[in-house]
């Protein structure tokens, strides 16, 4: 893999392309009297979660997607949250449901995720959605993994036969992106907090996916010359999981933070909502 030319993988450009392709589809739905609708549930008042929800709502508005915001107090019980999700499942005008995570600690987050109807699981958080993704036929794979694959495809970066190292094994990021890379014929190593000799494993990678939630965690000395680095982390102060300048010096292509994976994740959520409206819109 040549590393003479460095490419900054511009997530805003990829997101814009996705949204451009959505506009005529949304217009066609409007002719049928259908407005794609995403319901977002926020439990409690975590400031960063509130910011994410607001960003998603604004993105919907700009594209002509209806956004319903359900705000629940931090004292909400698991049962009350599941009941709220059940009401949205029953609402035929709602095409996608997003439960903003993390939820307060006393709530059983997995039980809440499982309450989302599969046809409205546009964020890819249910175990059924995960299983479908692993088998390669999910309608709505988890949005950040799908965004990573969209960036690789947009920039025509080869995946087949390449060695991808994923750092992180969360059920909505590390594990599903590992499955998607495997389905795209990459050889995948999934690393985590118990992995030994992590730096040595990362040095073998043609593609590095950082998804650990630790600022500047991935060091430049870990990167094989010419590797492709995708930073799915977002930490306070607009800092990713990758030491950007140090990794840029070694990589052939890299996503910045911000303006890398993040905008494509939101665009993917909007795409899944439009997909669901086309499939299930009245």
UniProtKB/TrEMBL annotation:
Gene, per the UniProt record: folD
SUPFAM superfamilies (UniProt xref): Aminoacid dehydrogenase-like, N-terminal domain, NAD(P)-binding Rossmann-fold domains
UniProt cross-references to InterPro entries, sorted A to Z: Aminoacid_DH-like_N_sf, NAD(P)-bd_dom_sf, THF_DH/CycHdrlase, THF_DH/CycHdrlase_cat_dom, THF_DH/CycHdrlase_NAD-bd_dom
Pathway(s) per entry: One-carbon metabolism; tetrahydrofolate interconversion
Molecular-function GO terms, alphabetical: methenyltetrahydrofolate cyclohydrolase activity; methylenetetrahydrofolate dehydrogenase (NADP+) activity
Domain Tetrahydrofolate dehydrogenase/cyclohydrolase NAD(P)-binding per the UniProt entry, residue ranges: 142-279
EC numbers, comma separated: 1.5.1.5, 3.5.4.9
Name of the protein in question: Bifunctional protein FolD
A Pfam family annotated for this UniProt entry: THF_DHG_CYH
UniProt: NADP(+) binding residues: 168-170
Domain Tetrahydrofolate dehydrogenase/cyclohydrolase catalytic, chain residue ranges per copy: 9-123
Catalytic reactions on record: (6R)-5,10-methenyltetrahydrofolate + H2O = (6R)-10-formyltetrahydrofolate + H(+); (6R)-5,10-methylene-5,6,7,8-tetrahydrofolate + NADP(+) = (6R)-5,10-methenyltetrahydrofolate + NADPH
Annotated function: Catalyzes the oxidation of 5,10-methylenetetrahydrofolate to 5,10-methenyltetrahydrofolate and then the hydrolysis of 5,10-methenyltetrahydrofolate to 10-formyltetrahydrofolate.
Recorded family membership: Belongs to the tetrahydrofolate dehydrogenase/cyclohydrolase family.
Gene3D superfamilies (UniProt xref): Leucine Dehydrogenase, chain A, domain 1, NAD(P)-binding Rossmann-like Domain
GO CC aspect terms: cytosol
Keywords: Amino-acid biosynthesis, Histidine biosynthesis, Hydrolase, Methionine biosynthesis, Multifunctional enzyme, NADP, One-carbon metabolism, Oxidoreductase, Purine biosynthesis
Gene Ontology BP terms: L-histidine biosynthetic process; methionine biosynthetic process; purine nucleotide biosynthetic process; tetrahydrofolate interconversion
Complexes and interactors: Homodimer.
């Amino acid at each position: 893999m040549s590393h003479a030319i460095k490419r900054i993988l511009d997530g805003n450009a990829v997101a814009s392309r996705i949204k451009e392709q959505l506009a005529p589809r949304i217009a066609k739905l409007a002719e049928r009297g259908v407005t794609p609708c995403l319901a977002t549930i926020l439990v409690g008042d975590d400031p960063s979660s509130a910011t994410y929800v607001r960003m998603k709502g604004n993105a919907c508005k700009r594209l002509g997607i209806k956004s319903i915001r359900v705000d629940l107090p931090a004292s909400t019980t698991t049962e009350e949250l599941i009941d709220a999700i059940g009401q949205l499942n029953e609402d035929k005008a709602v095409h996608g449901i997003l439960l903003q995570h993390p939820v307060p600690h006393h709530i059983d987050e997995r039980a809440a995720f499982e309450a989302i109807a599969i046809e409205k699981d546009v964020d890819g958080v249910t175990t059924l959605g995960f299983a479908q993704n692993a088998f390669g036929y999910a309608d709505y794979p988890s949005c950040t993994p799908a965004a990573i694959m969209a960036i690789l495809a947009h920039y025509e970066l080869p995946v087949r036969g390449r060695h991808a190292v994923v750092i992180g094994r969360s059920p909505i990021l590390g594990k599903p992106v590992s499955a998607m890379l495997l389905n795209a014929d990459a050889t995948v190593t999934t690393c985590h907090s118990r992995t030994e000799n992590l730096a040595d494993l990362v040095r073998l990678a043609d593609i590095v996916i950082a998804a650990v939630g630790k600022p500047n965690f991935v060091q430049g000395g870990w990167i094989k010359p010419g590797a492709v680095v995708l930073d799915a982390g977002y930490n306070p102060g607009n800092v990713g999981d990758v030491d950007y300048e140090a990794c840029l010096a070694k990589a052939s292509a890299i996503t910045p933070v911000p303006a890398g994976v993040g905008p494509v994740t939101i665009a993917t959520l909007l795409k899944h909502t439009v997909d669901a409206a086309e499939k299930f819109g009245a």
